[in-house]
Amino acid sequence: MGTATFNAQYNKDPYALPTTELVQQAFDNGIRAFDTSPYYGPAEELLGHALSTDYVRTKYPRSSYQLLTKVGRIASSSFDYSPSWIRKSIRRSLSRLHTDYLDVVYCHDVEFVSAEEVLEAVKELRRIRDSSQCIRYVGISGYPVDVLVKLAHMVLRETGEPLDAVMSYANFTVQNARLSKVGLEPLLAAGVDVVPNASLLGMGLLRRTGVPIGAMGDFHPAPDGLRDAVRRASEWVDKQGGGEEKIEVIAIRFALGSWLRDGAKAGGMGPTLSNSSSDDAAAGERLGVSVMGVSNLDELHETLRVWRSVVNGLDDEVQQQEHTRILGLAQGIRSVLGPAWTDYAWSSPSPDFVNYLSPEHISLRDLTADIA
Fold first, then answer.
1. CA 236 to mean position of chain CA atoms
2. Of these residues, 10, 39, 40, 169, which one is catalytic?
3. Would you call 39 a catalytic residue per the annotation?
4. For residues 102 and 93, is the Cβ–Cβ distance under 8 A?
C-alpha cells in the first residue's frame, strides 16, 4: 500500500482522508507493507498515527509488517543527499512512524542529483544499517528507467554490494512498459533483488476523469498530447462492453496481473496477502511486487478485489481467460495511443531544473546531531 495519496498533490485536504481507517482495513485485508516518504506532505505522520493506534498495536505486531520510506527529496525543486541530512531524515521518519527500524529506505528520485551524490547517500545508509540496525535494506527510486539501471550498476561496481531494491514508478502501465522492456533484465544483472512497480495509473494519468487536481494544482508532467491521447483511449474503452468498462480498471488489472508474472524474477516471496483468501494461491512462489495508493475505502476494497481476482487467476482457468481479455483491451488502448505516446516517458527532471536548498534548510541540517 502506497501513501503518496496522503498528500495535497492528490487530494485537496489529506487530513480529511480516512487514513487511519484505510490503514486498519488494509491490515484486516492482509496488506503487510506500507510505502511512504517525507516528501509526501503529511503522509509519514498520518501513517504513523494509524500504526500507533491500539487497534493496530494489539492485532499486528511490528514484526508482522514492513515499512518503506525514502530520503533525499525535500520539495519539488529541493534535494539534499548529504550524510548529515540523511541522518536527520532517518531519525525524523523513525519518530513519525513510531518505530525502531525501517525495513527499506530508498534514495528518493535519484535522477535529480549527481551519481556521486547517490553513491555517497547509499554508503551512508549502509553505514547506518550496519552501525545502528535501524535500517534493514537500502535502495533507490526514480522515474527514468535508464538512470535507475546506470546507478544500480554503478553502486555494484563501486561498492561490490548490489542494491537491495530499485523502485520504478509509472514505467509499467498500460501506456508505458519500459520497465519490463529495457529495465528489468539490466537491473537483475546489477544484482538488484526486488523491483517494485509503483503508480500503476501513471500518477493518475490513466483515469477517465483525467489527472488528479489537489490543493497544489495540476502537478502532472504529462504533455497535452499525451493527455489528449489518453482521453481518446478512455473514450474507446467506454465503447467496449456496453460502456461498463473504465480505462482505470483496465489499467490496474493489466499492471497488477502482468507485473505479477513479468516482474517475478525480481519479485517478493511468500503469501500474496497475509491471512487472506489468496494465501494458498502462490505462497511459495516469487511474484512481481506492485505499490498501489488509494484515497478512500471504496478504492481500497476495489483494488483488493481486483488483486485477489488477479492472484486467483494464476491457477483458475476462468480468471486466466479474464486476464487474456484484459490484455486484449490493453492492446487496444495502446493502439489508440499510437506510436508517439506508447512507451513515451516525460523528461525527469525538466530541462530547466535547478536544485535549491533554502538557508533555513541548511541551518536545520547543520544543527543535526548524528545517529550513532
1. 28
2. 40
3. no
4. yes
